[in-house]
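Predict fold of ATP-binding cassette domain-containing protein; 299 aa.
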Amino acid sequence: MDAGVTLEIDGLVKRYGPTVALDGVSFDVRPGEILGFVGSNGAGKTTTMRIALGVLTADAGEVRLGGRPVDLQVRRTVGYMPEERGLYPKMKVGEQLAYLAELHGVGRADARRAVLRWTERLGVDGRLGDTVDALSLGNQQRVQLAAALVHDPAVLVLDEPFSGLDPVAVDVMSDVLREKARTGVPVLFSSHQLDLVQRLCDRVGIIAGGRMRTVGTVGEVRRSGGNRLEVHAPAAPPGWADGLAGVTVLRHDGGRTLLGLAAGADDQRVLASALATGPVHGFTVTTPSLTDLYREVVA
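Predicted 3D structure, encoded as tokens:
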């Protein structure tokens, strides 16, 4: 299967006895797009990814790649990186990566060339003769990504690929994901590093309690939370903004208050209320960061 396909997650439902792990999860990852999939532990990220790969079976819903249901043949075109490292610890890096490429149908000579290319690109080409368990955790993570890339996948599905990496390794891995996306490969990855998601991703999806709460560009998701108003009024008592139309008090810390503004809320009325308590030293309208919005959605 060529790059340039869309990964479609359509209405996935998964139950474990009385526990509903996924409740109608739907989104897509388009050709050449990097989508960040975020949520707290137990929200359903890993379950969704395992169903997308075919490791788990959904109780309802379907996963399609390029319009085709994910069967054994389609799974061979997916590059998957699990959160738990899935490499053989006592097998040498070079031999293992070539073996994994061949399992995906790559010829032996092409597999060796792919191993050299990706280990060099990821900075672990000097460790080809080492066993995996002799590597640092960061280098194991780099080798795990190489394992997802050596068969030239049509889609990348990566579960916490940046976990445990130092800043230099994060930059290297980010560049690799951008490089693959530029070739038309859809990239789906989960992460708890929301500043990285905000910087790297074309779109983001937030899942909580097994349900998708929002999917969109980072800008769209941030704007969906409405504006924030930061007010520094040293003499303002707690509750000074209670009752103002379209205004939600998100945080009050001494004389600093963070307010959420609904569409159409009158910020000048807020300013008048703040001035009624005394001097106002700061009054700034901002858009919430992805981290702020994530906290509110998860809460």
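The chain has a mean pLDDT of 91.
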